[in-house]
Amino acid sequence: MAALSVVRVRARAANEDLLRRFEDKYFVATEYRAELLELLGTHLAPSYLTQDTRYNLIESLYFDADCFTLFQLHFQSPAERFKLRIRRYAPNGDWERSNALVELKVKEGRVSDKTRFGLSDADARELLEGRPVVFSGELRSQNPTLKKSVLRERLALLNSVMASYELKPKCRVLYQRQSFEKDGIRVTLDEGLRSEMVAVIPGEIADGLRGLPCYPAALAMRSRFQRAPFLVCEVKHGREVPSWLGRYVLARAGLNTRFSKYCYAIAGALDDRMA
């Protein structure tokens, strides 16, 4: 199995335009949505691929090993962990305009490195079946702005991680996102979070996960989010949250929180099996 540090180093090597940012997350009660949107509109600009987009519906299909290695790493290795997903964006909820990306997100503390590239439907099916994606003209056409050498390196990293960790699709997470960006600051607001398993967790595996020290932490994370209607406010920045936003989230949300949509979904699936 590839060490986490090797995954991180190779992810950086595969990126000439590395999406490397500090990342902080906050739970903001939905009752403050209007005033938060007004604040973001004052300091930032909407950030979408097309000007007519008001929001994106996002579908993330997460991969993990049969023993849920990546779920466990989120809690057991907060200093260094990663997730792999196929993500689709539907502008204004129109899935006919959606595009698929495979994303490898490596986190080292609060620093997030994201490696991604576009997939055709055929390539996505190969991943879902556990087969390596082959470099092809179709793959090139999905990534016209990437150099051929960079795309090859990213593809090699994807196939290596898939094989080393024996990753398979485990769950689908859907939500609505509004995005804002300016001067190196990116803020996203996520709501309407829902999830479904695409693979059944065998009883023996589920019992083993519930017996791990990380399981209560997973349930606590899920319970806190369910306590009241929240927006998940993610702030991505160079090193510091701007003062105008820092003051606001401190007043409305308090300190930043650790939250994973994938772990939220798995914790729910494990909890539901106990009901």
Task: Please provide the count of β strands.
Answer: 9
Number of helices: 10
User: What is the CATH superfamily classification?
Assistant: VTC, catalytic tunnel domain
Proportion of beta-strand residues: 25-35%
Can you tell me about this structure?
- The structure is a single chain.
- The relative contact order is 0.21.
- Strands 1-6-5-4-3-7-8-9 form an eight-stranded antiparallel barrel, surrounded by six helices.
- Strand 4 and strand 5 form a beta hairpin.
- It is globular, with a radius of gyration of 19 Å.
- The mean pLDDT is 89.
- 39% of the residues lie in helices and 32% in strands.
- It has a single domain, classed as VTC, catalytic tunnel domain (mRNA Triphosphatase Cet1, Chain A), CATH 3.20.100.30.
- It is an alpha+beta fold and 275 residues long.
Question: Would you kindly provide a brief summary of this structure?
Answer:
The chain has 275 residues and is an alpha+beta fold. It has a single domain (4-274), classed as VTC, catalytic tunnel domain (mRNA Triphosphatase Cet1, Chain A), CATH 3.20.100.30.
List the helices and strands and how they pair.
Blueprint: H1 4-13, E1 19-29, H2 33-43, E2 45-46, E3 56-64, H3 69-76, E4 81-91, E5 99-108, E6 111-119, H4 121-128, H5 137-142, H6 148-165, E7 168-182, E8 185-197, H7 203-210, H8 214-226, E9 230-237, H9 243-252, H10 261-274
Antiparallel strand pairs: 1-6, 1-9, 2-7, 3-4, 3-7, 4-5, 5-6, 7-8, 8-9
Helix pairs in contact: 1-6, 8-10
